Amino acid sequence: NHAPTATLATVSPTYSGRVTAGFRLNHNCATVSAVCAQAVACRALTCGKRPADSFLHARFSLGDDVLKPYKATIDRWLWPDVLMNQDTSVATAKTAIAAYKKAVGQPDGLAELMVFYGEQAAGFSDHVGAQDEVYVGTLVRMFGQALKVIGALPETVRLDLLDRRDEVRHISHNFGYGVGDDMDKLLAEHGVDGRRFQLS
Fold first, then answer.
1. What number of other Cβ atoms are within 10 A of residue 141's Cβ?
2. Residue 47 region, left (φ>0) first, then alpha (ψ -120 to 50), else beta?
C-alpha cells in the first residue's frame, strides 16, 4: 500500500487548462496543503469564481491570461462605479498584486500589474477628481516600486512599460497634491529622461 499522493500535473484530467478538484492524492500532501491554503487566501480576488482559480491558474500558468483576475480586482477597487455607490479600496487593490507575487512572482507580470495599478488610479483621479490623500499617496509609492521592477527587465519590455509610466506621470500633473512633481523626481532618480527614456 502506498501513502496518498497528489500529482499537480494532473489537476485537469482533460488538459483543458482548468483546475478541477480531482487531485490524485500522493505522499506529498504537505505541498498540496500549502498550495490549497494559499489558494483560500486569494478568495477576495475571485470575483465570484471558485476561490482556488486565481491562485492556481497563476501558480501553474493556466488559462489564456493569468493576470486577468488580478487586473479585474485592481480595476474594481481603484476605478469603481460611482453611480452604483461603489467605494475605492487601496488595500484590496494592493492585495491583488501581493497575491500574484506570492503565486508566481514573474517580474514582467508583476511590473504589468504595477503599471496597470498606476493607470487605473491616475485615470480615476483625473476623471472623478479623487481627493483622498491615501489613494494618491499610494499611487506615487506604487509608481516608484514599479520603476524598480521595470529596471530589471529586458530593454524590449522595459521601454514599453516606461512609456506607459510616463503617461501616468503626465496625467498625474492634472490633479494636484504635487503627485506629478513627485513622479518627475522618481523618474529622474531612476535615470529616465522624459518621454525619450534614455536610461543612465
1. 13
2. left
Q: Which residues pair with 5 in a beta bridge?
A: 26
Q: Where are the beta strands (DSSP E) in the chain?
A: 5-6, 25-26
Q: List Cβ neighbours of 126 (8 Å cut-off, separation of 6 or more).
A: 171, 172, 174, 175
Cβ contact 46:69 at 8 Å: yes
User: Which residues, at least 6 apart from 70, have a Cβ–Cβ distance to it below 8 Å?
Assistant: 45, 54, 58, 96, 97, 99, 100, 113
Cα angle 76, 82, 84; round to 5: 90
What's the CA gap between 12 and 14, in Å, rounded?
5
Here the cell at position 94 is 494592493
User: pLDDT tens digits for the chain (200 residues)?
Assistant: 444 433 333 333 333 333 333 333 333 333 333 433 344 344 444 444 444 454 444 444 444 489 999 999 999 999 999 899 999 999 999 999 999 999 988 999 999 999 999 999 999 999 988 668 899 999 999 999 999 999 999 998 999 999 999 999 999 998 877 899 999 999 999 887 554 444 43
